[in-house]
Amino acid sequence: MTAAVPTPSRIATLQQAERERFIAAHPRSLAQAEAARAHYLFGVPLHWMRDWPTPATLAVLRAQGATLTCADGLRYADFCLGDTGAMFGHSPAPLAHAIAEQAAQGLTCMLPSTRTVAVGEALERVFGLPMWQMALSASDANRFVLRWARAITQRPTLLVFDGCYHGAVDDTLVDLDPATGATVARGSVLGQVHDHHAHTRVVPFNDLAALEAALAPGDVACLLAEPALTNFGLVPPAEGFWPAARALCRRHGSLFVMDETHTVSTALGGYARAHGLDPDVLVVGKAVAGGLPCAVYGFTHAVAQRMVAAKVQAPEGHSGIGTTLAGNPLALAALDAALTHLHTAPNYRHMHALATELEEGLVCRIGAAQQAWTVTRLGARLELQFMPHTPRHAQDVRDMANSDLEALTHLFMLNRGVLLTPFHSMMLVSPETTEADVATLFAVFDELLIALRG
Ligand SMILES: Cc1ncc(COP(=O)(O)O)c(C=O)c1O
Question: Is the CB of 226 under 6 A from ligand 1?
């Protein structure tokens, strides 16, 4: 037996009350939001900061450990953690020290620093691939990987999954038209003039037959994929999906590229390493250097040889790959500290133990309240899904999501000191997250369930 689904009018009434509560409690954030309109589009330095479901943008005074303090002096147990950038906590001490020390000794030189060798060894130790290049963001890294893949295979087409997000990478911002099965431009993308979907193919996640059909023409440079979809709710791979998908890529001569920018939360070294997926290329951004702007991509010796061949055969000049500040000494110092002190087995043990506790507590509460909701967990990352089962692909999410209830949940929890990741209901556990943070989340979730019952 399940309880009645909260009605749209009940959700709307609660949402209005939460908006008023937010406004009353955040005069300083409101004042900043208003004043910042004079100089910033939508009053924020990055327009999507305005997409949190709050009446005005929360202004951050400081963020330390797993706690965020807003301009009004209110404290939040932060389960958003900068949407994974701060997965190891905000400003972890070893990272803050390394950055401060390097900051006094040179920020950028367009030359490798003396840490380069040690960082390369640490990247191989943590992620398992021998060869590396750096970028400033995961978006950049994905864009560069795509360019390399096309250059070395001499093939034009990119293959991605429906519901994917790999950053501001034009070629990947495409969708699957459910009616026709065709690849179409993503309607929300601004200023797009190139016909990117002509060179990108999209298939449903967890669908091996569709994957095989997309690879069959032999024109696919690479499959670019997250090990689990983490940007369309959380959609885990079906049992046996990845070994079969990898075999298909190999059979058809397409590179198998794993974007671990979010799934690095799965285990030390990421999902692919933990599950022996053996990718040709691996991308990690956001938390790889503890949140300092930096991303890396690693690859096998075989891929490296093909990259070298492509580069030496090309005419001298711009490769279209790389940006001036990439691999700068500050990023290398942060990477060095992060790979040594943050990407560690004890940190992951803590994250997994608390994430398991969080999963079990939420499942138990959802069951007691007889709601047909689901909790899906991948290592330290959990998704609260207002649907009766874990989705298998993006279309499941489109069919079952309840965005009004999701928005209410965010604001309700934020108003009571708990931050979830906006755009979906993701909770990430850091090494700095405490039992007390989890207990706070449970107490607020209990309150939400009571409020929804009316
Ligand atoms: C899987 C994945 N790849 C790449 C990116 C892009 O990261 P960034 O915005 O730091 O470039 C994101 C951002 O959410 C992501 O989730």
Answer: yes
